[in-house]
Amino acid sequence: MAASGDSVLVVGGGQAAAQLVVSLRLGGHEGRITLVGDEDEPPYQRPPLSKQYLAGELGRERLLLRKAAYYESRDVELRLGRRVLSIDRAGHCAVLDGGEQLGYDRLVLATGSILRRLDVPGADLPGIHYLRSLADADRLQEELGAGRRVVVVGGGYIGLEVAATAAKAGADVAVLEAEERVMSRVLSAPLAEWLTDLHRQSGVHVRVGEQVRGFTGQERVEAVETGNGPLPADAVLVGIGVLPAADLARECGLGENDGILTDEYCRTEDESVLAAGDCARTINTALGAAVRLESVQNAVDHGQVAASVILGDPRPYSSIPWFWSDQFHVKLQIAGLARPEDETVLRGDPSAGAFAAFRLREGRLTAVEAVSSPRDFMMGKKLIAARAAPDPARLMDESVALTDLIQSRHGIPTLHGPDP
Ligand SMILES: Cc1cc2nc3c(=O)[nH]c(=O)nc-3n(C[C@H](O)[C@H](O)[C@H](O)COP(=O)(O)OP(=O)(O)OC[C@H]3O[C@@H](n4cnc5c(N)ncnc54)[C@H](O)[C@@H]3O)c2cc1C
User: Fold this and answer.
1) Fold of 329-405
2) From the CB of 295, is ligand 1 less than 6 Å away?
3) Is 165 in the pocket of ligand 1 (CB under 6 A)?
4) Structure pTM?
5) How large a percentage of the chain has pLDDT more than 90?
6) Which CATH code fits 128-238?
7) pLDDT by residue (tens digit) across 296-315?
């Protein structure tokens, strides 16, 4: 079976799927490519859904990763608005809604994430929104506007981005976060506090340690019930995270544990089946661990890695993860993966609005969280890739160039990575 002639079936029509098919055709893949996606649009970028698109600053057509004509001209068959219901691995075919069967030589699962939903009384009332798709963003956009009382449940990336967008549109916004600080899973305490202050100074009521008990209203949501009493609401956005969309994999017997399990080449235990993007838990050789991430960069990397396997020139997944978030005028950029207990070293002056938090574990840099500070972000990423163990005192000293910090606390260069 010649790799370049394999028929490839992609399940899912998002970021990873788009990257995969683009990389396959660019790499000379000549076999059939079919992409089945259950949304009506060709693959599009999701990040603007909580930012510029929601704010009305970016048109719908600008969301598309490639126009429909691109796929047509590259002989990529798009089956949009269709859902794969099951996979017959022994028979090498997938069953679509309506019963149609599609065969494959290679199957790529790029099914993304599914929303975590709140299970409390009143959770089905109209006016309570979630945000994953373009259709969700369109519905939410209609609810934002000057004077509207918008309650955001969950102070994670999406909750805070929607809060910022809604506040900029003139809405009266409250964020309810169950933990003791916002973005507690992904940010250091100083940065989370700084971000909370930014929101409060911009008029957002941020309430931490606040559990939502339910929603009330006659025709639609009118209030959010909290431990501190009811909070009036014209609209609610629930942003409490996502789960990997791994049902298909589970049902056809593929290994799955908070994500479809793959090696560093996005290969599942079945050599014909790969998994890419949010749905996959993949070994990252730079981190020496299997990780499941929800980010554009991860989806793009996986799409490229999976394509390299199908093209017969496998490249392992080996990038340092990075993420970004836009809230008000601030660009937050994060590289690496920190644990909550990692040490935090600040560089720069938070009150000046541009600074970075460097995270360390047993002396080694694990992550950098940069606020409107792209240079710290870029250099931090290089230091993490070089497995640097910088002296914290020098790290926080802005007169010391970050390039000078690729050495251990004892001044001995670490020889684990390339010279940046
Ligand atoms: C509002 C929002 C803002 C974000 N902001 C950022 C950001 O600022 N930075 C960042 O790095 N990341 C951000 N992300 C995350 C990023 O968009 C995702 O990590 C990325 O889209 C993952 O790509 P994917 O291809 O794995 O999955 P997705 O893009 O989710 O695509 C999966 C697709 O597969 C479809 N599908 C699932 N099952 C089936 C099936 N059985 N049959 C057919 N189709 C199926 C789904 O409906 C979906 O269309 C954001 C996400 C959202 C929702």
Assistant:
1) Enolase-like; domain 1 (3.30.390)
2) yes
3) no
4) 0.95
5) 93
6) 3.50.50.60
7) 999 999 999 999 999 999 99
- Of the candidates 114, 104, 105, which has an alpha carbon nearest to the alpha carbon of residue 259? 114
pLDDT score recorded for residue 415: 43
Q: What is the pLDDT of residues 215-242, one digit of tens each?
A: 999 999 999 999 999 999 999 999 999 9
Q: Where in the chain is the domain with CATH 3.50.50.60?
A: 3-114+242-310, 128-238
CA of 277 to the centre of ligand 1 (A): 8
Q: pLDDT value at position 233?
A: 98
CA of 252 to the centre of ligand 1 (A): 22
In whole angstroms, what is the distance from residue 111 CA to residue 265 CA? 17
Residue 335 has pLDDT above 80, yes or no: yes
pLDDT > 70 fraction of the chain, expressed in percent and rounded: 95
**Could you tell me the sign of the dihedral formed by the alpha carbons of 137, 143, 144, 145, in that order?**
positive
Atom of ligand 1 nearest to the CA of 302: 26
Q: Nearest to residue 343, comparing CAs of 327, 362, 370, 325?
A: 362
Mean pLDDT of 247-267: 97
**Closest C-alpha residue for ligand 1 atom 47:** 38
| CA distances, 80 to each of 36, 68, 239 (Å) | 6, 11, 26
Instruction: From 186, 295, 300, give the residue whose CB has the most ligand 1 atoms within 8 Å, as the site to mutate.
Output: 295
Q: Where exactly does CATH 3.30.390.30 map onto the chain? A: 329-405
Mutate to test the pocket of ligand 1, among 22, 84, 111, 152 (most ligand atoms within 8 A of CB): 111
**Stretch 91-113: mean pLDDT:** 97
> Across all residues in the chain, what is the average pLDDT?
94
Considering only CA atoms, which of 16, 54, 38 is closest in space to residue 169? 54
Q: Is the pLDDT of residue 418 over 70?
A: no
Cβ atoms within 10 A of the Cβ of 119, count? 6
With a 6 Å cutoff on the Cβ, whether 325 touches ligand 1 is yes
Residue 19: how many CB atoms within 10 A of its CB?
A: 25
The CATH number of 3-114+242-310 is 3.50.50.60
334 burial class (0-12, 13-18, 19+ CB within 10 angstroms)?
buried
Q: Is the CB of 15 under 6 A from ligand 1?
A: yes
Dist. CA 345 → ligand 1 center (Å): 33
Residues pairing with 256 in the sheet: 260
